[in-house]
Amino acid sequence: MFTERFTPGAGAPLRLPKTVMSSYLKRHRVYRPSPAEEWQPVLDMLGVGSGEALAIEARATLSGLTFQAELLSSGRVCEMDFFRALARWLGLGFETTIRPHNLIMQEDGCLEALQQSCGVRAAAAYDARGNTVLLIAPHGLDISGMLDFLKRYDRLRLTLRIIAPTALREAIKARAAKATARMAVSALFEHMPSFSARTVVNAWQGALFGALAFAFPASLLLWPVQTLLVTHIVLSVFFFSCILLRFFAGLEARKTKREPELCSHRPADMPVYTVLVALYREADVVPQLLMSLNRLVWPRGKLEIKLVCEADDHETLNAIRAHQLRPYVEVIEVPDIGPRTKPKALSYALPLCRGDFVVLYDAEDRPHPFQLMEAWQSFEKSTDDLACLQAPLAITNGGESWISSMFAFEYSALFSGLLPWLARRHYVMPLGGTSNHFRREALEAVGGWDPYNVTEDADLGMRLRRFGYRSGVLTYPTLEDAPSDFKTWLPQRTRWFKGWAQTWLVHMRNPSKLLHELGWGSFIMMQIMVSGMLVSALAYAVFTLTALFLAGFHFSGGELTRHQYVLLCVDLANVILGHVAFIALGWWTLPRQKRLNLAQHALNTPRYWFIMSIAAWRAIWQLCRRPHLWEKTPHKPHRNDHFRKSSPLPTILPSSLPMASLSRPS
Q1: Which of 252, 301, 325, 389 has CB 3.0 to 4.6 Å from 65, enough for a Cys bridge?
Q2: pTM above 0.90?
Q3: Is the sign of the CA dihedral 347, 352, 357, 362 positive or negative?
Q4: Model confidence over 139-176: pLDDT tens digits?
Q5: On the CB side of 364, how many CA atoms lie within 13 Å of its CA?
């Protein structure tokens, strides 16, 4: 009542008497958040002088925030101390915590309350003695109006209690945990079952693969040479389509790239931006993550950072809680229900967010400080059908090993070549696993992430396009490290290939409907980018081994038949052209200062492709045995952070000073 949206949480039965409320409203028709001068008695208890308060108020006006919101987001005072002092000044009781089962709220009401744009501000509950009380965590408090009200209705002091918003939110989250977890695991499957990877194959797909599993060995026994030739030709169609795509994207990537032009904006016009970070067994990189998030340029009063962790990952949780976090940084603990996957964790966290825009980062990411600004301005300049923007991922440890070097080469081709080429033509675009910026409304409209798909990024890119949305690309990158050894690289690449297979199977359940929704261009690109890349990786080992066997047989004095000779030529053409297209695209997309050791990349390409083929065959085996297994990729801190030196100082305004944690990690 005395805040901008001062109502008990949804589902709370407690209401102030109508006669009291109506009589008061007649005398006070307009409620306004109190200015700094009215807060001064509270600020004096916290050691904040009037001069400092006026400076904070000026920043609040510039950001379009209340004085209270700017004060708390600046980190000048601790949230718990602030509300304790406020309770003392108002003469009300103060609750440090509240037990979740003491809340008088239904589970659905809890979820509704958590999604309120101004946060959870009030809820009814039972106190330790069983009395009904109203817990309030004021947002835009009118102090003079509140004091006047309490003076008129002094008996309500026994009913009203002040509580810190974070403490109230934690209790409501815990009360809604089971409902939120059920929704994260089952919502997509229940509402859009045709888009869920929970079922690996449908009826006709299962029948088709079963028939092929019988027909291929039989044909191989009866007509071995002809069967191998037809198989190689079919595989070559996928292989050669990937070659053509790389060449076309590479020719366009050779053009000079332009830096983004950012415009100045009033912070008051900027929306709330949500940053989601999924962490699992990431205690080592927590300090680096907080430092990276610290540098993001966005008004802190309009930024919310959600660190999403598994509830039983105590090591990571303890590493996070070792730092004194700002009020806009929240730790979300995901219950152990359903598949233990990154998309399940993100689906659990999404209903707890209130941002108009949502960006996803991984624990090891170091995003460019201006990335949020570029994304938001790109959304503002575009139409509402632009649902997602993919920031490029840049590998910074390419010199660590030959695998990390080839990984960086491959990422350059993907994020600076293929994805921009697809985006410019409005084709369907498989997203990268991180640095995806979404319109919140579009993300929810398509059902969010699929908790059963182990490459939720590619699947979500397809689903967005099928619903009529499109994706674009950004310029400011996110830095991350690549796996530097085969033991780390193989499970990650296996998971990617398995997820691509899941994605293809899901979206090809009804090919005619898919074609109608995507159109011919995106339909063909989907076949090349998802199934084509997987089939190419599977086929590479077949092509290489067959070519080596036939060549060895020929040079050892054996005589090749006409079919065998055709087979050898097809395989050699595929392998050689595939290598050339891969090297050309990677080379053309690399920055000029990094175009070194072309010969080394060329020599490493055959063995890199061969281990990709191993990962692809391993993925098919896992798809049959453990389709929803998420193989975790371990990460370690990166010592040389490029953005540490290039971070913009100062940022757009003092309230945006880069501090996600009050304790700066070393």
Answers
A1: 301
A2: no
A3: negative
A4: 888 888 888 888 888 888 888 999 999 899 999 999 98
A5: 24
